[in-house]
Amino acid sequence: MKILNRYFTRQLVAIFVILLLVLTGLAWMLQIMSMMKFLLNYGVELTSFLGLTVLMVPFIMSIIIPFVTFIAVIFVYNKLISDNEITVMAASGLSPRQLARPALILACVLTILHFVLNLWVVPRTQALFYSTQWNLRYGLAHMKLQESAFTQITDGLVVYVDKVSGHDLSQVMLSDMRDEDAPVTIFAEKGKLVSTARGLSIVMNNGSLQAKGDTLTTGTFDTFDMDLNVADKEGETSFRVRRVPTAELINYVLNSDTEKQHKMVLAELCSRFLGPMMNLILAALCATILLRSSLLRRRASFAPAVAVAAMAIVMSLYMSVSNMVGSLSEFVGLVAGLFAVLGVILFVLCKK
After folding, report:
1. Distance between CA atoms of 197 and 99, rounded to whole angstroms?
2. E-only strand ranges, the chain
3. 3-class secondary-structure state, position 29
4. Are 81 and 71 spatial neighbours (Cβ–Cβ below 8 Å)?
5. Whole-prediction pTM
6. 73 backbone φψ class: left, alpha, beta (φ>0; ψ -120 to 50)
7. Which tens digits make up the pLDDT trace of 302-350?
């Protein structure tokens, strides 16, 4: 039996790893394509851009692992059934439970690894992703400032610089049309790029300012600080549940009364805590359908299609219900429901 377990496990692991690498690579390439505009618009170096997209890989893997587990199980077991290997093993006295053991063991290991990925790795890499993205977008604006050229920093904000030396600028002209009712034009002999909580600012020296509102205002200054960015790193838009540590999400659910964010956080907790369970549920479901159908007098050739349909139904129900969870009692109910489904599948699998 140990030899058979190793035989099954070796094939399952090989198919799982290959599929995981292929699908993760494809999803990563799609992520790169979707962020190509970010690379072009903000003048980010290619290595920094690729490093940013790599931070999305753990999140991508956390989504596709249950599907890859299901595909690996259905591929290996259907192949063994087609080659009559399962029939020979069953005729030698092995039960469906024994034949399914390698798939279930692999699914249990993947469930544990998926928990680690969801609860710790993904929140940390997502926090680093958003922080890095913000810094590349706003913290490196000086990389876009070209000498003797007009540079659009953001919508309505254009900067002209005669010479650039690191963070030091000379002969600066800045046109700020972000507020259409109060456009501002600034000329300065010198300027310096400074990092602030909102990104980059230009501190300009020895210049003049012209502002147009209800009246036209002009004047000169010795020092003037102009914000280049419109996005606040610590603003309300920074609340993204994927990058919040799990302990903070739990504390938020227990103490927050904001209904919209409360449901958002509960949906994220469902994804983190219940998503890994789908590895075991899908693997057990697939093995049960294939192995039970292989013992029929007339082998059910439609068993793989039935397994795929069952997987689609289970996953669609899980995703629909998890997104509608609005309270802790509903969360507990969903957990109980998943354990009940797993129990029924294992009962059918182990039944003689």
Report:
1. 59
2. 149-154, 157-165, 168-176, 184-196, 199-212, 216-227
3. helix
4. no
5. 0.77
6. alpha
7. 888 999 999 999 999 998 888 888 788 888 898 999 999 999 999 988 8
